[in-house]
Amino acid sequence: MNPKPNISLINALIRITCGFTFLAWSTAKLSKKPHNQSYLWIALLAGMKIAEGIVRYCPLVALYDKKEEFPPNKQVHSTQNYNHEIKKKNDHVEASSSKEVAKIMEDFNPEKIFSPEDMKKD
Fold first, then answer.
1. Within-domain flag for 2
2. Which domain holds residue 63?
3. Could you confirm whether the keyword Transmembrane appears in this record (predicted)?
């Protein structure tokens, strides 16, 4: 299994840096108080962040992205009705978008902005 990277390079570098920082801090604390379990947990979590930065894959980000792919919690009786609703919404968005674009193009028409003398090439 080769997971695709789902975090950016900058995010990976930040995870590696913070992971090594917390790992160094927790191991220093763990050497002074070896019976304190919380430092061990912090060291394990820091190691996980280092691994996420090296691999550039975060399972929580993947889980969040997968959650966004699904429609909101709405009971759909059949996929046909759902597809029809989505198509209807998309048609409305496309129609309003094209009307808005046409209006913007009319407003920014060079003939309205510039005078005919400005349009002449010297």
1. no
2. 9-69
3. yes
What's the rounded Cα separation, in Å, for the pair 26 and 36?
10
Q: Letter for the amino acid at 9?
A: L
Q: Looking up tokens 């604390």, which residue turns up?
A: 29
End-to-end CA distance of the chain: 64
Dist CA 22 CA 46 (whole Å):
6
Q: Would you state the structure tokens that stand for residue 78, as one six-digit string?
A: 């059949």
Mean pLDDT, the chain, integer: 79
- The pLDDT tens digits for 78-119 are 555 566 666 665 555 555 677 777 777 777 666 666 666 666
Task: Give the number of domains in the chain.
Answer: 2
d(CA 90, CA 82): 12
Neighbours of 43 (CB within 10 A): 18
Q: Is residue 15 domain-shared with residue 64, that is, in the same domain? A: yes
**In what helix (H) or strand (E) does residue 61 lie, and over which residues does it extend?**
helix 59-69
> Do 65 and 71 meet the contact criterion of CB atoms below 8 Å apart?
no
